[in-house]
Write a structure and sequence with these properties.
With about 375 residues, the protein is an alpha+beta fold. It folds into three domains: about 140 residues, no CATH class; about 120 residues; about 120 residues, de novo design (two linked rop proteins), CATH 1.20.1440. Helix content is about 50%, strand content about 15%. The chain contains 19 helices and ten strands. The strands form two sheets. Strands 1, 2, 3, 4, 6 and 7 form a six-stranded antiparallel beta sheet that branches. A hairpin with a 4-residue loop joins strand 6 and strand 7.
Length: about 375
């Protein structure tokens, strides 16, 4: 940092110290915000763009990097080691006194609530006379979800492990949190995990009063967010589309959504195929299966045509009865069973020796999602009927 920058920083640090010590008693709004955090602690903060002098207040954006120092009132001492943070700059419309009070109260609620898995809550909020704006301090994060997703180029209909974990974490977060503006990418961020240096996606809870959103609306917004930011390869995939439709329908539980095949690996989907097959079915079960597994929509004709040239798979598709859906599921079950038995000929017939369930999923888009819906029907999986 050059001498001018250092001087500016020193002056600003002194301003921060005076502001927090004096305003704690003289400004009710600041007092409210600090007491909501901890009566024994206050914070000194620095926003990078101020010290660098690169931007003027009227050109600020919503997010700015910065640092904070913790102050111990009992020891009357500032901690010397700073902590990197992010500051969210609220618009001028929140400069109204009534709006300020709303922001302070909402922040206190979020701070007391803590930061459950999948969300980030504020550290503190205050009014900055230097900017003439309200600012909210959050733990540091690395990048936006949209930038993070750009690194995943598709190439396969199967979602990478990191994407599956991201969706599962956000599903859990929106299920129990009143998160607004979810269709807007700005509240969603990607933070670095301290444990294994992997990336973990979380939702930022903003202290902005708004109409309470319903779970159904949050799910629909989340679906819109995924459609807008996921790679086209996945958005156009029939199984991913089936997952989004299930998400938007509001007919399924969180557990149902978490168990959808697009959020599972190939081995889990293989077990789904094995668990759903019944050699003997009642008429009611046959009817349910044929309705759910309508093989005509997987190829518009004979589903076996897609197996030409794949000798091991062709050999496992010879069964033909009056129930084409049951025949197809028999073939899928036999394929998975052969893979699990480590049949070398079968493995050589697959691409990159991927799990059998993934091969079937790629050959017949939509099948694994239809099968999953069938598994959710109690009258079909009731073993007493099978």
């Amino acid at each position: 940092m050059d001498s001018d920058g250092a001087a500016i920083r020193k002056v600003w640090e002194e301003i921060c110290v005076d502001m927090f010590i004096s305003e704690r008693d003289s400004r009710p709004s600041t007092s409210i915000s600090i007491e909501g955090i901890d009566e024994a602690n206050v914070f000194r903060y620095i926003l990078e763009l101020w010290t660098k002098g690169t931007l003027k207040p009227e050109k600020i954006g919503p997010w700015i990097n910065g640092s904070i120092w913790l102050y111990e009132c009992e020891r009357t001492k500032w901690y010397t080691k700073s902590q990197s943070v992010k500051f969210f700059i609220l618009g001028e419309e929140f400069n109204d006194d009534a709006k300020k009070v709303e922001v302070y109260k909402k922040s206190i609620d979020l701070i007391k609530h803590g930061s459950p898995r999948g969300v980030i809550t504020p550290i503190f909020v205050t009014y900055c006379s230097r900017f003439s704006r309200m600012i909210v301090c959050y733990p540091y994060f690395d990048e936006s979800l949209s930038d993070w997703l750009k690194r995943y180029k598709g190439g396969s209909s199967n979602l990478p492990y990191e994407i599956r974990i991201m969706i599962r974490n956000l599903l859990a977060a929106i299920e129990h949190q009143d998160i607004n503006r979810l269709e807007d990418i700005s509240p969603i961020v990607c933070v670095k995990s301290k444990r294994d240096n992997t990336m973990e996606v979380k939702v930022i809870l903003l202290p902005v009063q708004s109409e309470q959103s319903s779970k159904a609306k949050r799910r629909t917004s989340f679906s819109s967010l995924l459609r807008k930011n996921m790679h086209q390869t996945w958005v156009e995939d029939k199984d991913f589309e089936a997952f989004l439709l299930m998400l938007e329908s509001n007919e399924y539980t969180l557990e149902n959504l978490m168990g959808h095949p697009v959020l599972q690996d190939g081995d889990s989907n293989g077990r789904l195929i094995l668990d759903c097959f019944r050699e003997t079915l009642t008429p009611a079960q046959h009817k349910e299966l044929e309705e759910k597994l309508n093989v005509q929509k997987y190829d518009g004709g004979d589903w076996r045509l897609r197996l030409q040239g794949k000798t091991p798979l062709e050999n496992m598709s010879k069964r033909s009865t009056a129930y084409p859906g049951h025949d197809f599921l028999w073939f899928a079950r036999k394929t998975v069973a052969h893979f699990n038995e480590n049949d070398a000929k079968f493995k050589n017939a697959t691409v990159n020796r991927v799990p059998a369930a993934n091969v079937i999923k790629d050959l017949y888009p939509g099948f694994i999602s239809d099968l999953y819906k069938l598994s959710l029907e109690p009258q079909y999986l009731n073993r007493a009927l099978g």
